[in-house]
């Protein structure tokens, strides 16, 4: 039985329809793919993004803000979306397991991620959250929210960005290990986990969002996973992506990818954190990582799709 951490991108949860019904349907389709790992005999640990959801929830909170019903801060919104998305995944996976006559418990764990209070990311917001805005909408957004920072995101429009500190420790990782040892499928560290800093014995939430790929890599290292699989909207890693000479990479060493990372060949906020997270897992453990498309899960399990990254 292989212990596999699977990190899911936003496409696994949210499309153009932000309603709960539409997101639950997207999660159901995702669960249909993920159950293939369990059918294959693997021990699955699931983590997921929450950028669109936490951004949308924050907007809802701000639009209904009042003295008697004050808006919740970003860290609490992160916890709220961990709970809602975890509920959707528990529900969908339980249905898939029952339909496949597999008896396996699933549990969602609200997860806190310890970060460095002095991480330079707090002074340089970079993590996109919430919906996309057109160039015309940006002026009004800035008038309404002068403290927001908005950037163009991969040619898809403008999004708000917030600090994204690097994860140091997954606070609940020992509990996650026990859940895994019991053969239970945990859904953990949604959206990278709730960012907290340690003051003595107290954990204090911070207004930030942690990159879920870095968090997934950290979880995979802490639970001693045999493999880290990052599922996204593209089939794998490409050199010169989007250019006439783009080249899909099927098998590559971590050291080769380091060279391409240093040459700034991957898009920040898109493929770059996925490659960095995968390479870090391989460097730290010597175990392989895979980056591939959600719809290719069956082929990824067989080893015929996705980009496989190895130590040698």
TrEMBL record:
PANTHER family in the record: CARBAMATE KINASE, CARBAMATE KINASE-RELATED
CDD domains xref list: AAK_CK (cd04235)
Source organism, top-level taxon: Bacteria
Gene3D superfamilies: Acetylglutamate kinase-like
SUPFAM superfamilies: Carbamate kinase-like
Protein name: Carbamate kinase
Transmembrane segments: none
Organism this protein belongs to: Xylocopilactobacillus apis
GO cellular component, one term: cytosol
Coiled-coil intervals, chain numbering: none
